Amino acid sequence: MSGSAPLRLLLDGSSLVANWRWLAAQAPGAACGAAIKADGYGLGARDVVARLAQAGCADFFCATWAEAAALGELPGGARLAVLHGARAEDMDQARASRARPVLNSVEQVARWREAGGGPCDVMVDTGINRLGLGIEEAMGGALAGLRIDTLMSHLACADEPDHRLNAVQLTAFQALRQAIPAARYSLANSAGILLGPDYAFDLTRPGIALYGGVPVAAATGIRPVAAIEAQILQVRAVRAGDAVGYGATWQAPADTRIAILNLGYADGYMRLLAPGAFATAGDRVLPLVGRISMDLIAVDARNADVGEGDWLRLDFDLPRLSVRSGLSQYELLTGLNLRFERYWN
Ligand SMILES: *Cc1c(COP(=O)(O)O)cnc(C)c1O
């Protein structure tokens, strides 16, 4: 990259690795994998894989074959599974790839068999009603003779530890494990790991918590990974009573200085984030004023000695922003797009 973008995503590789190790330690009997779909939840899947593989992570999960191709050659020993399985139009790539499809339907299983089979993963739906074979289909012989590496299911309500569906899905998955031979069994996402050791099985599949999301209060060991910095494009003086931004929704209560930052909703900094949002310059807090535009925001700089070309850090505390905006931590992270220049430490 050229190093000239006015918007930075600062990524903390040691916190990423520390989060993976912490999640692994919560399920000591299981291997700990990593969900890297959506380009590593917006942080850059190749960079994530390189760091986690070096730390010892050997199992990665992406969504599509396009994502698998974009990863290029994986580090030695790393395995990749493609969660959306194998559509008819994926078969050439799936057959040629070292990655395994996660077969999700009777049709996908038949397609894989007809093409010659080979190691694969299988998703069985135990209650989220999203992707996966039904329990009856899986138990009824649809999988006979298949060389299953990992048999998996996905929890619907793991981020609500008291939800009754967690135990229902666990019981169903335990029965599947008795009935269907596979090398490994996997149920838990980030929040699922924190439901306790019964949910760990052989392999866990955390995503959001690796990247600094805090899916449940019990995830006490998770550190932030991503921080946002935007450059000041202009500083302007406004008089008491002057309005700032679209809709003139904010009027200066006194004469002040406004810094205009290169960040907006087209960068994933959604309009819903405005109430309570702020930037910082060292220990100075600069509250956001007015509406968030497509590419710009304004902050009140009366208390900070900042000027054109300076960089400000935006508040990007995922749990707090999520509660305040109603956007999920997943949406907040995956919304950060390619106009950011990524810097890993
Ligand atoms: C996305 C995903 C995960 C990771 O979920 P998090 O909630 O981000 O930890 C695990 N398994 C499957 C099947 C997924 O789709």
What is this structure's SSE topology?
Elements: E1 7-11, H1 13-26, E2 31-32, E3 34-35, H2 37-41, H3 45-55, E4 59-62, H4 65-70, E5 79-82, H5 91-96, E6 100-103, H6 106-114, E7 120-123, H7 135-142, E8 148-152, H8 164-179, E9 184-186, H9 190-193, E10 203-204, E11 226-238, E12 243-244, E13 250-251, E14 256-261, E15 278-281, E16 284-289, E17 297-300, E18 311-314, H10 318-325, H11 329-334, E19 341-344
Parallel strand pairs: 1-19, 2-10, 3-4, 4-5, 5-6, 6-7, 7-8, 8-9
Antiparallel strand pairs: 1-11, 11-14, 11-18, 12-13, 14-17, 15-16, 15-18, 16-17
The structure holds pyridoxal-5'-phosphate.
Write a structural description.
With 345 residues, this protein is of the alpha/beta class. Helices cover 27% and strands 23% of the residues. It is built from 11 helices and 19 strands. It has helices spanning 13-26, 37-41, 45-55, 65-70, 91-96, 106-114, 135-142, 164-179, 190-193, 318-325, 329-334, and strands spanning 7-11, 31-32, 34-35, 59-62, 79-82, 100-103, 120-123, 148-152, 184-186, 203-204, 226-238, 243-244, 250-251, 256-261, 278-281, 284-289, 297-300, 311-314, 341-344. The strands form 4 sheets. It has a 7-stranded parallel beta sheet with strand order 3-4-5-6-7-8-9. A 6-stranded antiparallel beta barrel has the order 11-14-17-16-15-18. Strands 2-10 form a two-stranded parallel ribbon. Strand 8, helix 8 (164-179) and strand 9 (184-186) form a beta-alpha-beta unit. It is elongated.
